[in-house]
Amino acid sequence: MQKASQLHDVTEMGDTTVDLGKGEPIAITAEGLAKSFPGVAAVNGIDLQVKPGELMALLGPSGSGKTTLLRLFAGLETPTAGRILFGDEDATHLPVRERRVGFMFQHYALFKHMSVAENVAYGLRVRPRRLRPSSAEIAKRAEELLELVQLPGLGRRYPAQLSGGQRQRVALARALAVEPRVLLLDEPFGALDAQVRRDLRRWLRELHDRTGHTTLFVTHDQEEALELADRVAILNRGRLEQLGHADDILDHPATPFVAGFVGDAIRLPVTVEAGWISLGRGKVPAPFQFPSGPAELFIRPSDLTLAHSTGHGTFMGKVVGTRRVGSARRAELVLEDGLPSVEVTLPLEHSVAKGEELHLNLLTMRLFQAR
Amino acid sequence: MTVAPVMGQRFTFVRPSALPGFGITLGFATTYLSLIVLLPLIVLVWRASALGFDGIWQVATTPRVLAALEVSFVTSALAALLNAVFGTLVAWVLVRYDFPGRRLLDAAVDLPFALPTAVAGIALAALYAPNGWIGALFAPWGIKIAFTPAGIFIALVFIGLPFVVRTVQPVLQDFECEVEEASATLGATRMQTVFRVVLPALVPALVTGVALAFARAVGEYGSVIFIAGNIPFVSEIAPLLIVTRLEEFDYAGASAIAVVMLTISFVALLIINSVQALSRRRYEGA
Q: Strands, E, within A38-158: which ranges?
């Protein structure tokens, strides 16, 4: 109901200064961390460090163990092996409520019977009396935090009266109220629609830059992870596949899994023979000293271009369909019968017909030995 | 939730809905309610009206009737409140823990529904009488349970228990454990989580359960008369007084007491319902 106003107020930050009182940001570390549930190893020996003040994304398909890893850091799960460090302190067996983590749940998990202000103030109200600020201070802080998350004056509403994006920001304000040492966000934008997601994403980045919390967030949306995070950790089947900046991950995928997972890649089983890969009635040179034998080639739409000549290193693909993607056109091509089709990005003015044969060049080589 | 009148749009009694069948379902519901509930009540009021308002007032304000009404409503309210506490506890145990015999215990909760109430009354009377298993424990201190208002209280607790358990149980079952986890990450102790987060969420269901248990207890007859002792001014309940009048062929007198009970119950339930509407509004948003 408030979508219009919400859309532009999330994009710009207010000038409120809030003392988050959290002290210096700390690193959080997992050492050989493992968690098994009956029959499944959800997290299977992970070593990972989030640096002080870093914004890191945990990216992976569903069931890759990313949420379990996040919950292990929060103390909501007990590890079956390994250690968790907060700074230099061993936090492996520290109870949840003593960890001082700000945890944001995917479905907000707001307290429905409390007003927005009461939700935000909750973490302060439940403190033991000697550590609890006065009611006036608590109310003031709740209002400051609501201003920080761009919801000033909404303190008296109830969660049911807010939109999804507003609820998510209340959840964040509530997490920040306890002066957390780290922020852990589980699919922070998972339940929101695309437009709100994009705005909140930018807003969260700005908020992070201002507050400087060590932040770890879980997502299955690679665009979100690669755009928002300082570094991205890619998880698969409870293991860490690669940890790096967006550029590393996109340009130098460390494992076949990463190569196939990011950037709309298509996996082609190929054979390398004496430094050449046979592909679509042509041959492409393999990287220097690549061993002969079966291999996996990952091709993204941006890896292919139309070849101007039919010379060495080009190959042929037969058009089986085209579609419009944003400001470009993509043609779907079959290189050899029985292989999955690949896609090539074409300029809009270049029209192709089904059944047409195109000469192609491969710009980037992502080749792994088959296991 | 007020609907702002829109210019140029005529006021309609029924707000338009996308769901079809409003007319027929409303018609059926009102007819059904009229036949099953309203018609008998109208006959009751009509019977009582033979006495006129003054007549009803006279019957209702005799000391014996007033005492019986007090016993009925006060004991019912106390029993419903006790059930609120222990019914919630039973529901909690049934939902939150898995233990051998859980299904048996779950089924046992419904027994007070299934048992003829007279049987329950006789069994309770046997237990709590001065020579019964439990009554004998209290007898040496001169405490009598059966044949006193305390006995009525126990019978009403017995028959009211399932209402609270069965209304609270499903709500507790659907309670997201993420909300409890959120409370823990914010630094709350387990006790704080239960009392500040979980129990408040159960309040609307609990109010319903208490209202049902209370209503049921007010109307209860079978189990109470066996354990109450039925001493006028002490442990005589209003429904028994009605039966007594009927046995004396004083139909008008009986219906006069009934009408008074009906009015008090209706007002009590109305109050409970508005309390509940208030507490629910918060959850679902105005």
A: 40-50, 55-59, 81-86, 89-90, 101-104
Q: What is the DSSP pairing of strand A328-334 with strand A293-299?
A: unpaired
B174 touches chain A (CB under 8 A): no
Q: Please provide the size of chain A in residues.
A: 371
8 Å CB contact of B183 and A107? no
CA distance A7 to chain B (A): 22
Question: At B81, is the secondary structure helix, strand, or coil?
Answer: helix
B134 burial (CB, 10 Å; 0-12 / 13-18 / 19+) is middle
Task: State how far the alpha carbon of A216 is from the alpha carbons of A54, A186, B208, in Å.
Answer: 8, 9, 43
pTM to 2 decimal places: 0.77
Give the nearest chain A residue to B186 (CA atoms): A123
Contact state of B286 with A161 under an 8 Å Cβ cutoff? yes
**Burial class (CB within 10 angstroms; exposed 0-12, middle 13-18, buried 19+) of B237:** buried
How much is the CA Rg of chain B, to the nearest whole Å?
Answer: 23
Starting at the edge strand found earlier in the chain, the sheet holding A40-50 runs A40-50, A28-37, A81-86, A89-90
Give one DSSP letter per residue of B119-136, joined into a string.
HHHHHHHHHHSTTSTTHH
> Is B54 in the A-facing interface, judged by CB distances under 8 Å?
no
**Between A101, A158, A160, which is nearest B185 by CB?**
A101
Would the CB atoms of A97 and B185 count as touching at under 8 Å?
Answer: yes
Tens of pLDDT along chain B (286 residues) come to 444 444 445 666 666 677 777 888 889 999 999 999 899 889 888 888 888 888 888 888 899 999 999 999 999 999 999 999 999 999 999 998 889 999 999 999 998 888 888 899 999 999 998 888 898 888 888 888 888 889 999 999 999 999 999 999 999 999 888 999 999 999 999 999 999 999 988 988 999 999 999 999 999 998 998 888 888 888 899 999 999 999 999 888 898 999 999 999 999 889 988 888 877 766 655 4
Q: Is the CB of B191 inside 8 Å of chain A's CB atoms?
A: no
Q: How far is A47 from chain B (nearest CA, A)?
A: 24
Question: Residue A104 to residues A33, A182, A336, B74, B185: CA-CA distances in angstroms?
Answer: 22, 11, 48, 47, 9
Contact A97 B200 (CB under 8 A): no
The answer to whether the CB atoms of B196 and A122 lie below 8 A apart is yes
CB-CB under 8 Å, A161 with B185:
no
Structure letter (DSSP) for residue A308: S
Whole-number pLDDT of residue B169: 94
Cα distance between residue A283 and residue A281, in whole Å: 7
pLDDT digits (tens, 9 = 90+) for A265-317: 888 888 888 888 888 778 888 888 888 888 999 988 888 888 877 777 788 88
Please indicate whether, in this complex, the C-beta atoms of B182 and A96 are within 8 angstroms of each other. no
Give the span between the Cα atoms of B133 and B126, in whole angstroms: 8
Nearest 10 degrees: Cα torsion B77, B80, B84, B85: 80
The ipTM, to two decimals, is: 0.80
Residue with tokens 């009392």: B195
